[in-house]
Amino acid sequence: MTCFWDKEGTCQHPRIGRTPAFPERCGSCSMRRLVPLNLPPIEEKVERFQKAKQEARAEELKAMVPKTPSLVSKALSWAKAEISRAIQGPVPDAEYQDRLEICNGCPKLQRSTEEGKLGWCGACGCGQRARAELTVKATMPEAKCPIQAWGSLSAKRVPLPQKPR
What's the pTM value of the predicted model, to 2 decimals? Predict the structure, then answer.
């Protein structure tokens, strides 16, 4: 026995066996798999998928762009670090060496060509000024690593070259 379905998916078969047809009953016949579903066209699905994919990619790219601190926040951070060195004095030698070893292994490091200077941090945005040099910054108690590597036990450390005696 076959059912006769119209465009809306309603069975037009008058009876199934001796029982009058109604949607719940007709859904049990062997032709139920041919019931047209009221689904959106495939083009709409593809368009929604592509839009969601583009939005996800945009969010991914936005997350990859580093957030640069504002000029005011950089100035406040610098002033705080300079004042801490003037009041508290430089950090202990062990901490100073740890900081420089962490910076020496950092991919953001902009190396200096001068003897005795490590270079500058490329993540903080301070530029290549004399007071922004890492051998100076590492002495300041309140100076912070912009990628939070100082004080981290998991930060990569590369030993500094030994000075000739």
Answer: 0.55
